[in-house]
Amino acid sequence: MKAPLRYYDYEKDISGCGIFGVIDKKRNLIKGDMPIAAMTCMHDRGNGLGGGFAAYGIYPDMADLYAFHVMSSSQSALDRAEEMIKAHFEVHESQPIPTRKTLAIKSPPLMWRFFLSVKETRPRWRSLSEEDYVVATLMDINKSSGGAYVFSSGKNMGAFKGVGFPEDIAEFFRLDEYAAYIWTGHNRFPTNTPGWWGGAHPFTLLNWSIVHNGEISSYGINRRYLCMHDYECTLMTDTEVVAYLLDLLIRKHGLSRRMASWVFAPPFWDEIARMSEQDKQAFTALRMVYGPAMLNGPFAILVGDGKSLMGLNDRIKLRPLLVAESGDRVFMSSEESAVRDVCPELDKVWMPKAGEPVIVELEA
Amino acid sequence: MDKFTLDAGGVYYRQLNERIREAVAAGNTDIELINVRGQRYIADALDGELNFKIVGVPGQDLGAFMRGPKIHVEGNAQDGVGNTMDDGEIVIDGLAGDVLGYAMRGGRIMVRGDVGYRVGIHMKAYMEKVPVVVIGGKAGDFLGEYMAGGAIILLGMFTGKPDAPIAGRSLGTGMHGGVIYVRGGVPVEQLGPHLKTEAADDADMETLTRHITAFADSFGLNAKEILSVPFVRVKPFSHRPYGNLYVAA
């Protein structure tokens, strides 16, 4: 269901963002056409000010290297980013991200990608773990290069995003030429923050990627909390905090995905009051320790990390989320129509309970 | 007139709704839509005796502001079904999403399976206008929140969620009119503040029998079996539950 030409002549529709994700549990690759078609079906959930995709399994020949995707408003900022990258990493490949000219995408930033390994002799941050070193470097680039942003930094995965409808962004980045075992997609309807290239979804860090429908009203406290743990927000959009919180809670603090979901969307106090003494203590502790990491406001999020796809709603379900299964594939989407459009026959369809994550792990 | 069939495959919602309106203007009363894929606003604000059959997944706000038509969805529906619907009937074979029957003011919606969150919120009634929602499966949180009139009948039988409570939390919160019937009962912690359940009386059973018979007929089920378990009702405890919220008592 592609929008007609000159769709902008039509009256404005009321919208929210649209999200879609698919995982093949056996790691069979799914061509880009599928998530693109699904996002196209939900065209009207966005307004053309942001679209994007994350894809896992797209760089099998460089699977051991960090794939940095960099966008830059100017050549000089890109040069500065490249210098910083060269100072901290061994560069195995450096190339423009393949794009095609398309009428719908106007004045895109420069797009470059680097395949990297950490230098044996690090210029600084020698005591950090390898992942923390990567995080510190890319935060530094985003903060101080003066207009270049590393918007994807995982291994064997990549994010592709920008200002436009998702189907137009897909055309721009030639995503029909990629195949992945996990895809997520996003159609943006910006509300509180600018519709700029860095602010499109997905937001990523290392292998984490997240797409989000909703609004993180707790952005301020989340951002300050992250700042204390050396994560600096530079992308001017609320969802950025979720990517970094996932990294902090799950990778660094060792919480399970289920535990992290309880931090993001904790049970209500009256529910905690009805729990067994042991659970009561555990959930009270979780809320006390991780209060500043709680996500307030409406959200439906999809999280990819290379090994799983997770969907989660806020605890009073202020945004839609549907899960569907067909054989080895599991779909998560704002609307069922988008899933049926790419997979008409489904084994199982349901809408998960608010605050309870659906976590689908790879089996192969 | 014969049945009029529209293939919605690949058609943008705006054009689809234009074609539906043209078909209605041409005098068609029996309309079938096939290959529906999330097109919004189908049959919105249409008036009179029309019959729609929808094959596929209709998009948001199906039958909003509708006054009279009957819609049968062969499959599942998304969010906002019957938004502020005035009269007519919507029958859904599968499940339905959030905010079904929002501010509904008349007519009937019947869903065979589960429904999402905030179903039947702000439903209202006036004189002979009494909206009814019948749910064969289970419901999410906030069922009938701020309800002002009409009836919600929750069966909990045809569900994909065997382990979930029959209704989510905050059922009927802030309701000041209307009634919610639940087959078999509902745990008190799922109810909104100050609400309680009580046994359905004879007058309630008359209402329930009428709508459950229609429900059973629509889906080829046995009404007697559905009615063989006692029902409870949840009614408002006050006409103005929040009358003293901002003033000294």
Can you describe this structure?
The complex is a heterodimer of chains A (364) and B (249). With 364 residues, chain A is of the alpha+beta class. Chain A folds into two domains: 13-58 and 156-361, Glutamine Phosphoribosylpyrophosphate, subunit 1, domain 1, CATH 3.60.20; 60-155, 2-Layer Sandwich (Alpha-Beta Plaits). Chain A has ten helices and 18 strands. In chain A, the strands form four sheets. Chain A has a seven-stranded antiparallel sheet, with helices on one face. A five-stranded antiparallel sheet of chain A has the order 11-12-13-14-18. Chain A has a four-stranded antiparallel sheet with strand order 5-6-4-7, with helices on one face. In chain A, helix 1 packs antiparallel against helix 10 (336-342). Chain B has helices at residues 13-25, 202-219, 223-226, and strands at residues 4-7, 30-37, 51-57, 67-74, 87-92, 108-111, 132-135, 148-154, 177-183, 197-199, 231-234. With 249 residues, chain B is an alpha/beta fold. Chain B is 14% helix and 25% strand. Chain A binds chain B through residues 1-4, 10, 13, 41-42, 44, 268, 270, 274, 316-317, 320, 322, 335-338, 340-341, 348-351, 353-354, and chain B through 10-15, 36-40, 56-57, 59-60, 76, 78-79, 94-95, 97-98, 114, 116-117, 140-142, 160-161, 164, 168-169, 189.
Per CATH, the superfamily of the domain at 94-234 in chain B is Glutamate synthase, alpha subunit, C-terminal domain
Assembly form of the protein = heterodimer
**Range of helix content of chain B:** 10-25%
Largest interface, by Cβ-Cβ below 8 angstroms: which chains and how many residues each?
A: A-B, 28 and 34 residues
Stretches of chain B where pLDDT is under 50 for at least 5 consecutive residues are none
Q: Which class best fits the helix and strand makeup of chain B? A: alpha/beta
Please count the helical segments of chain A: 10
Strand residue percentage of chain B: 15-25%
Low-confidence stretches of chain A: none
Strand tally of chain B is: 11
Order of helical and strand elements of chain B? EHEEEEEEEEEHHE
Residue-averaged pLDDT of chain A, rounded?
95
| Residue fraction in strands of chain A | 25-35%
In helices, the fraction of residues of chain A equals 25-40%
The termini of chain B sit apart by: 63 Å
Q: Tell me the domain tally of chain A.
A: 2
As for the CATH topology of the domain at 94-234 in chain B, it is Pectate Lyase C-like
Basic shape of chain A: globular
Structural class based on helices, strands and sheet pairing of chain A: alpha+beta
Order of helices and strands of chain A: EEHEEHEEHEEHEEEEHHHHHEEEEHEE
On the 0-100 scale, what is the average pLDDT of chain B?
96
